[in-house]
Queue: 3 jobs
Job 1
Amino acid sequence: MARPPKASKREESSGEFRSGFVSLVGRPNVGKSTLTNALVGEKVAITSSKPQTTRHTIRGITNRPTGQLILVDTPGIHRPRTLLGERLNALVQATLGDVDVIGMCFPADEPIGPGDRFINEQLDKYPRAIKIAVITKTDVASKAQTAERLMQVQELRDWATIIPVSAVGNDQVDLLADELIQLLPLGQPLYPDETNTDEGIEKRISELIRETILEGVHEELPHSLAVTIDDMIEREDKDLLEIYANVFVERDSQKGIIIGSGGERLKDIGQRSRAAIEPVVGQKVFLSLRVKVAKDWQRDPKLLQRLGF
Ligand SMILES: Nc1nc2c(ncn2[C@@H]2O[C@H](COP(=O)(O)OP(=O)(O)OP(=O)(O)O)[C@@H](O)[C@H]2O)c(=O)[nH]1
């Protein structure tokens, strides 16, 4: 079976490897989610590697030759009103108490206000984490504004570093990832580097197809749907990856739902799946989807094995 080319990023690395948890905090709308997505770079299906340890909600993982950066969510800290006068919510405490680095985000185009100060003060409760400041949205601020923000932010605390970035303009995002990794403890990757393995790629592709099928479809489908990858062929005459996938359902009626009248639904699923897969494999994709009925596959050990469970 031909597979997409893979470069084992870790083999290229000569130095020490670092890995750990990072949380981006900041008041609403400062660009935390956008920056997380920019750092992660692509849609990551991490459901398959649900952590043994984690109390954290993982938003994404960045794998680099130098290390593995695991970005975690901290719901709540950006809502001062619900926190004032109360104890910090347990989840926030557990998460921020555990992470290696906290990146506090400040938009370049807005002055620092009470909300920012409040969150900054909260960070004192987490002495274990290294704190850095990220000046976000530099693309919408003038140089003078960004410089002014840098000065204001600098006065808040003794940050390990302050980095201006634009997630939208993709400016300094790589630098931020590198700097974050340098602040993590030495250690092996905490999660399997699925992006670097064939098995990981196949699993992710089938997950993406499965997710696409389940978008806006009957509730009766989820438990009776399995997607397998039959073959992946790297075309030699052009930059194209051919993917042959099977969609297994339990009943003819379900097959009908997925195919839709005149095959319209399946066509749409194919197009949307392709759009989701291409950024992950980094090339154009031809996708063949075949819908098959495997009666009671959930209860049949042989079938389960064939379906990769
Ligand atoms: N121009 C520009 N806009 C950005 C950038 N990053 C984020 N934004 C915009 O700022 C808004 C808020 O971004 P989010 O990433 O949702 O911010 P957030 O901090 O996660 O917000 P909450 O979920 O409310 O905490 C969105 O409209 C983004 O498109 C950037 O680098 N440049």
Note: Residues 264-281 form the longest helix (18 residues).
Job 2
Amino acid sequence: MFSLPPLDEVLAGAHVVSLPMRVKFRGVQAREVMVFKGPAGWGEFGPFLEYDDDESAKWLASALEAGWLGQPARVRDWVPVNATVPAVAPAQVPAVLAAFDAVHTVKIKVAEAGQSLSEDAARVGAVRHLLPEAKIRVDANGGWDVEQAVSALRMLSVFGLEYAEQPVASIAELAAVRVALRGTVLIAADESVRKATDPLAVARAGAADLLVVKAAPLGGVRRALEIVAEAGLPAVVSSALDSSVGISAGLALAAALPELPYACGLGTVSLMAADIADPSLVAVAGGMEVREVVADPGLLAQCAAPADRREWWLQRLRRCYALL
Ligand SMILES: O=C(O)CCC(=O)C1=CC=C[C@@H](O)[C@@H]1C(=O)O
Ligand SMILES: [Mg+2]
């Protein structure tokens, strides 16, 4: 880690915002994040509320890298971006997709708690019906066991799948699903990379065909680049339901990776009803120009979280800073 800025300097410039979602995503109705401005740019500290301090400290390292060190050199100026469809009813699919401009790749959430495989199939079918040519990937967030994953992915593969993200929870189960499907559906690891104590364990176990990498949970853009290089697997860059400031760190990662074979999951600002940058970092014509993002003072004020939530985040920042 580079030398940390003084805590007071970080606290002094911190804003806490609450961004309402247009569609509920991973149970979240409004996304709370903290952002601050350092000499190198804006950084976002937005671990999900239930994450503990050890896990959240990595998100802080990423935010401080963006604010005080700046992002590494880029090798491209434009990155392809996928649309993201939460676990909505099929009838809602057209409205969700309408929020995205020119969609070539779609990621669809499946295996949501309380839903059935036929609901997943109906949602994936609705996307395929609207977008016959698009690449479709599904993300189960580890919601299936091995047997369920194998039968679900065999069934969903009739719609044509680019890959399946984290169909099962553990690395051993990922390996078992991958063997059972024998390459008919590619397997991507997300939680098994970003929430693992060893982000390289998946690659060593041969448990996935590709890795999903997110700048904040991995501790920053530079750390994510190292992980991809060491893993030796193709990588998909994705986001963590961030504001445009957080998305810009993902964009910096996508811009700096030597190879970028897949569209990036960086389009999630389109799922939000408010943002703190104008213009927002959303995909146009299926991708994004690489750029830096500056938070807008008026929007920061409009989206400001209540005082008790601001205090909660300031305490969280102090605790996580002490862990770096
Ligand atoms: O990859 C995408 O298309 C969007 C980002 C996305 O799906 C996620 C962001 C944040 C938390 C996760 O539940 C989720 C994911 O699992 O990939
Ligand atoms: Mg995922």
Note: Residues 26, 82, 84, 107, 139, 141, 190, 238-241, 265, 268 surround 164 (ligand 1) (CB under 6 Å).
Job 3
Amino acid sequence: MTNTTHTGDDSTPGLRLSGIELTFQDGDQTLYALAGIDVEVARGEVLAVVGPSGAGKSSLLAVAGGLLSPTSGTVEVGGRDLTGLSRRDLTRFRRDHVGFVFQSGNLVPALTARDQLRLVGTLGGDRSRLRDPDQLLEAVGLTHRARRRPATMSGGERQRVGIARALMSSPDLLLVDEPTAALDRRNSHDVVRLLAEETHQHGVATVLVTHDHEILEHCDRVLEMVDGRLRAHV
Ligand SMILES: Nc1ncnc2c1ncn2[C@@H]1O[C@H](COP(=O)(O)OP(=O)(O)OP(=O)(O)O)[C@@H](O)[C@H]1O
């Protein structure tokens, strides 16, 4: 694949999942981790997904981000169908178009905040998509921490560096797994507010999995996952 720019215009959803099933074989039994998912996430929208443990939330993120291939159904990110891409093309596509944010930031211990961001530019992706590390650090309120390593930053600061790093390649899709699990209430609100601002300003489609109902007020839409299916959250 030579052309990794998105094929759609701004009305193309950032993410479209159609008829997604993900099954695992357990002896004679077929387990449905995802049992028929149809959902779109617009550019500039934060979709929160809540639901009990084992419902399929992590599986949903893994399939949406091209880390797991679904058993059936199609995944489109920014108008590009990921079905049928080779492993190599999928890896490239992810690098340029999908950002991941994990529970604890997942930073490289030896690198300063600024170098965590600069590292993204050395991974050989599409340089035209790269944002400026210093501007991004400013956007997440961490200019004064640019030279700090993770060990001397707070949990909230580390999480904000993780968010900035995920945004470095101007992704179409941002996948966020329990971003506030390690944070206190104030930092949780700050981090999710920041995610929402960046999502809205830069037209990203964001899917955020969480057990933290306090932060749902910052999200544009909330769905509940139960037994591998998405339904309205009440
Ligand atoms: N590699 C695998 N092999 C077999 N079963 C799996 C595998 N990965 C996930 N599952 C099963 O699929 C279902 C969904 O798991 P998943 O991790 O997506 O749930 P979750 O909603 O993210 O849970 P949690 O909130 O605890 O992280 C569970 O029943 C899980 O045991």
Note: The longest strand covers residues 29-41.
